[in-house]
Amino acid sequence: MTQDVAGRHVVALDLDGVTDKAALMERCARALELPDWFGRNWDALADSLGDSSVWPAAAARRGLLLVVAGWQPYARSRPDEWETAREVFTEAAERTPALTVALELGGSHSRG
User: Fold this and answer.
1) Nearest to 11 by CA among 87, 77, 80, 89
2) Which of 21, 54, 59, 108 meets the CB 3.0–4.6 Å disulfide criterion with 16?
3) Cα dihedral 93, 97, 99, 103 in deg (nearest 10)
4) H helices of the chain, where?
5) pLDDT tens for each residue of the chain, 112 residues long
6) For the CA atoms of 40, 31, 55, 2, what is the dihedral angle to 10 degrees?
7) Contact criterion met (CB below 8 Å) for 98 and 63
């Protein structure tokens, strides 16, 4: 499947240093500029990823490319949580044509 992501608003979700679900949810809330009422649970994340009205304004207009970086240490230390997160990202992207989620293979932006 080929998807044109040119012109989409890019949001970097850097998971470097994330060690648990609570930290993952906090990073998602900050990166996606989610409202204060964001529930910080899997269902709330799935709902937010599928609802362009809570995305950053530019993403709501142009579509969203969410680039997840620094995820490998979290995936290794919390494989069950990471599997759930990956499923949430995958299902949201499959249901929402304006959303693309990409896993960066090169690691975190914060490393030199």
Assistant:
1) 89
2) 108
3) 50
4) 21-31, 42-49, 57-62, 72-77, 79-95
5) 445 678 999 999 999 999 999 999 999 999 999 999 999 999 999 999 999 999 999 998 999 999 999 999 999 999 999 999 999 999 999 999 999 999 999 754 544 4
6) -110
7) yes
